[in-house]
Every structure is written in C-alpha cells, then in structure tokens.
Amino acid sequence: MEPQLKEQLADYQILFKFNPPNAPHFGGVWEREVRSIKAALQVAVRSQSVTEDVLSTVLVEVEGILNSKPLGYVSTDVADLDAITPNLLLMGRRDASLPQVAYASGEMGRRRWRHCQNLVDQFWTQFTRNYLPTLQTRQKWHKPSDTLTVGSVVLIIDPQLPRAQWPIGKVTKTMVSYDGCVRTADVSVQGKVYTRPVARLIPLPALTDETKDS
User: Fold this and answer.
1) pTM here?
2) Which domain holds residue 189?
3) Which of 1, 128, 132, 198 lies at a 20 to 30 A Cα distance from 164?
C-alpha cells in the first residue's frame, strides 16, 4: 500500500490487516459470506447475458441487501432493539432502497427493470437459503449448544418476507421440551408476539462500546 494512502487512512483510524496469500480460510466468517453471495449470484444470473446497466443495478441492489443485515445490537433495553447495520454506519440510515428514478418511456425500459427485480428476488431467495443457516451453530449429537434465554435479542428467519427485511425481536418466553431443551420461543417484534421454533431464530451478539470502536 502506498505510504500516502496509509497516511490518509490513518487520519480516519483505518488500519488494513491482510490475510496471507492463498489463504482465504483465514477470513473465516466473511469468506463464508462471500461464498454465499457468489453462489446466489450464479444461481440468479446463470449463463444469461445481461446488459451492463442490468448487472450494475442488480449489484447495487445486492449491496443494499447485504449492508442492511444486522451486525449486532447495542442495548438490551426492550425499547431499543434497533441493530447496528453497515448501512447505518455508511449512510446514517437503515433504508437501503434505491431512490425513484425517471426511466425512459417505452416497453424496453420497463422490461429491463422487471428483469433486474426478478434477478434480485432470486438472489435474495438463494442467499437467505444458503447463508442464514450458517449463522446457527449446530453440534447435534456431539455436544449441547447454548440454550436460548428470555431477554435474548434474535434475528427471525422468515422466507416469506420481502427481500432485505431482517426482523429483530426479543425473546419473551421459552418453551422447554421433555428433555430439558428449549425448542420453541415467543418473540416480541414491534409490540406483536410471534411463536417460532429455535431453528428459525438466530441470537444476535451484544455490541459494547469497545466492539463498536474497533
């Protein structure tokens, strides 16, 4: 990296730490996310030939989806369940939707826009199907995992929601099965309570001030 660029980044307290060459496994979590993104894009686009405008629009929409994904929550207060997202840090807002644009008249413009939206919908379906299960650590038949407790802040997996929607709630009640394991929980989301299996709940880590600064 050029020394001048290093000095400019240092002013913003940005420090790059690179992995060794030919060692993508050092990335761990984010490398797995990159793999999920690539796989979802391959399924959505496949071998079809798209224009540069269509591909650029799809990639911008995908960027908005990824940057709206919650990283963790700051407060354990039930009145403050808004999670920290990359969009919030980058743009100061959580809404990553594209602004409304005046498109050229004619069927071709509308057809390309529908094509873009169809590709992004396919990406969202494949990404959530392949990526979200990796956030749930499962050691079935080997060792017990941490039990979900009342007060935990969780991300709800709901394939029926529109894309870029990441519902976050707080566990208000847990149902213990005969073997002593929690398999079902009540989750409060914006004043409404939903009963969901723990297989559809992903606990979010609590972010302290030290974590946020790093």
Assistant:
1) 0.58
2) 3-213
3) 198
